[in-house]
Amino acid sequence: xxxxxxxxxxxxxxxxxxxxxxxxxxxxxxxxxxxxxxxxxxxxxxxxxxxxxxxxxxxxxxxxxxxxxxxxxxxxxxxxxxxxxxxxxxxxxxxxxxxxxxxxxxxxxxxxxxxxxxxxxxxxxxxxxxxxxxxxxxxxxxxxxxxxxxxxxxxxxxxxxxxxxxxxxxxxxxxxxxxxxxxxxxxxxxxxxxxxxxxxxxxxxxxxxxxxxxxxxxxxxxxxxxxxxxxxxxxxxxxxxxxxxxxxxxxxxxxxx
Amino acid sequence: xxxxxxxxxxxxxxxxxxxxxxxxxxxxxxxxxxxxxxxxxxxxxxxxxxxxxxxxxxxxxxxxxxxxxxxxxxxxxxxxxxxxxxxxxxxxxxxxxxxxxxxxxxxxxxxxxxxxxxxxxxxxxxxxxxxxxxxxxxxxxxxxxxxxxxxxxxxxxxxxxxxxxxxxxxxxxxxxxxxxxxxxxxxxxxxxxxxxxxxxxxxxxxxxxxxxxxxxxxxxxxxxxxxxxxxxxxxxxxxxxxxxxxxxxxxxxxxxxxxxxxxxxxxxxxxxxxxxxxxxxxxxxxxxxx
Lengths: 257, 290
Fold this sequence. Notes:
The complex is a heterodimer.
Chain A: E1 9-18, E2 21-31, E3 36-40, H1 47-54, E4 62-67, E5 70-71, E6 74-77, E7 80-83, H2 86-93, E8 96-99, H3 111-121, H4 127-140, H5 156-168, E9 174-178, H6 186-200, E10 206-209, H7 213-219, E11 222-227, E12 230-235, H8 237-242, H9 247-254
Parallel strand pairs in A: 3-10, 3-11, 8-9, 9-10
Antiparallel strand pairs in A: 1-2, 1-4, 4-5, 6-7, 11-12
Chain B: H1 21-43, H2 49-55, H3 59-91, H4 95-110, H5 113-121, H6 123-126, E1 129-133, E2 139-144, H7 145-148, H8 151-177, H9 180-188, H10 193-223, H11 235-246, H12 249-278
Antiparallel strand pairs in B: 1-2
């Protein structure tokens, strides 16, 4: 073995179609532990679909995905690859935190209740420990004073920060961000990005699908550019974003200048 | 008070409300007509107010009321529980579950409740004996239908199965009203389907489920009067048994009407509280003084 740590996420030859439209056309991607990978690309490039395949919210048609050494959704029984039952897939997902474009907070629960729901109900944490951790996390995203508020009483940026705290509360090995700032008013984007930058600096493994070039430049270890269902270019953010080689990446970046 | 130099006499804060002449006249008219109608009813000897007073708390009437209420509670509880299962089956990926649930709903919503009750009550004419057995295999237990199907079991089974068919559609509608992203989020957090349903989906669906369920409950209280045809001594049956003896038909029916209205009024109040509970995340302002 080399001294390079085994990848936390391994994506190999993944294909995915919706009906006749093939949205992923053979994706290979590794994410090392502690790495922050930002996936960029125009709408319809398949980047959100790829993210949703990682925690099996979408099934894939070909290829394989491993997270933390386990193949997602399937297992080998001798020579036969069999689909895992729903309960086993649920168990695999418990290591993966996810933040959605539309926040998806539980509207019938307060911010604090949102954060402790999975730790108490799914991970079997004691309520006291979960509450203590949840208060700490809400404080970390700057919302300690909003613990008792319902999502509808919070701004979009505040809701997304609660959603980030909620995902962190399950102590994930991997965090998935699906366009976390795309549904926000421009003046609220900054507070969410600041929270994410803070996480990126603390060694959390993150895959971030976004349109925020600035975030990729400042916080990412690696930028991945997808277009038409394939990875077109990837590498250090300053190279990919500073000296783009592929014409499609150049025209994509031209829109942000 | 600070002066408003800009608007002066045009400041709308100084505006007077016009005198509501038309509205007051309408109020007066309604009050006069209502008072006139009330005195006419109160003075009319045909209503038999003293009879109503004498029988309102009569033991037979109260026993009938309690039969109606217990039947409602039992049939409604069973109906909601079975309705929930049917709704989940109807929304499942499994074609067999979907089909069976659809068939049940189709049959029990498509036939009159009165006919269903009579069928259950007369089940022994169709199947004189009930046997519990493995299909084409050994018999496990054996019952005489007439000992199993009494008026009370016929009433409960008939009302509950009919109710389940309606509740299934109400609950299905409620579940469909919840944003798809909620189920997806629950899934992403590794919740099992049952847990997600109980903690995330159903509490949100309740906002759409409670109002029509209130309707169903009120219908059910009145539908229990149908069981008088299978000799169950419910509220309506009790007042009938009294007026068959005394011939005070209208006063005795009014006794039943008063009780039905009293119970449904209580339910309306209860429903308002339940609705407020499930709307708790809807208020815009934090910790609003309710």
